[in-house]
Amino acid sequence: MYRFLLSRQWVIVTLVFLLLIPVMIELGFWQLHRHEHRVEQNARIERSVKADPVPVRELTGPGGSVAEGDRWRQVTAEGTFDPEHEVVVRRRTNSDDKVGVHVLTPFRLGDGTVLLVNRGWVPSDGPQTSLPDIPAPPSGEITLAGRLMPDETTAASGIKDLKGLPDRQIMLISSGQQADALGVPVLAGYVEQVSPDPGADGPELVKGPDYGGIGPHMAYAVQWWLFAAAVPVGWVILVRRDARDRREAAAKEAESGAGGDGGSPEPEPAAVGG
């Protein structure tokens, strides 16, 4: 009854079904790993955000890099803003997805080194070649608090570091590039300002990280595994349906053949009496 499974068509179908099972299982584990990575990332961000603030010099220095475990750490610094060498970071959005710029202002520490501070977002409604109106930073010596961030790269952000931009405009925040431009030591990475609060007239502070959601990856993993379990069930259903169709076709063919061979014999002509 199931000799048709040895046909070329059914051998191909069976091989495809057998291939789908490990592929779907692997896709499920891929989504599971993404879920685990997201959970681990959320935990790391939460530890950094809730950790007690530390002086920025304890976590970064000139010419180095910010460790991944120190991303989002709360840091403090004492010094003065240098608005004369302020630049804007182009094509940045705020919490409402409006396009503008981030204001990057050097913050000079007591030992002469510079900390790059992202003071927040301002709208940029005019031509891209012109600078928007930027509120001035606080004057005099202040105590700054913010979130420590590593230097931005094209690989991590997807933003191309365009060349030939107008004066005081950049695409990526790079402590190395700013050190070359300023001619002084610059601490690696930068800080997203949290305090002092610039108020309604100042730049819109950059929103902190969202570490509450875990995404749909676990649900996707379960779906892929359910699909993998359904593959053999689907194969059995197709086999049984094909076998039934073949039985019905054979039965109809048999009935048709019986009808053609077994008719009633013609009656003989009646004898003529005399």
Automatic annotation (TrEMBL):
It is found in: Cell membrane; Membrane. GO terms for cellular component: plasma membrane. Residues 246-274 are annotated as: Disordered. The chain crosses the membrane at residues 12-32, 218-238. It holds the Pfam family SURF1. CDD domains: SURF1. Keywords: Cell membrane, Membrane, Transmembrane, Transmembrane helix. Residues 246-255 have a biased composition (Basic and acidic residues). InterPro entries: Surf1/Shy1, Surf1/Surf4. The lineage of its organism: Bacteria, Bacillati, Actinomycetota, Actinomycetes, Kitasatosporales. Belongs to the SURF1 family. This is SURF1-like protein. It comes from Streptomyces gougerotii. Signal peptide: none annotated. The keyword ATP-binding does not apply. It is a multi-pass membrane protein.
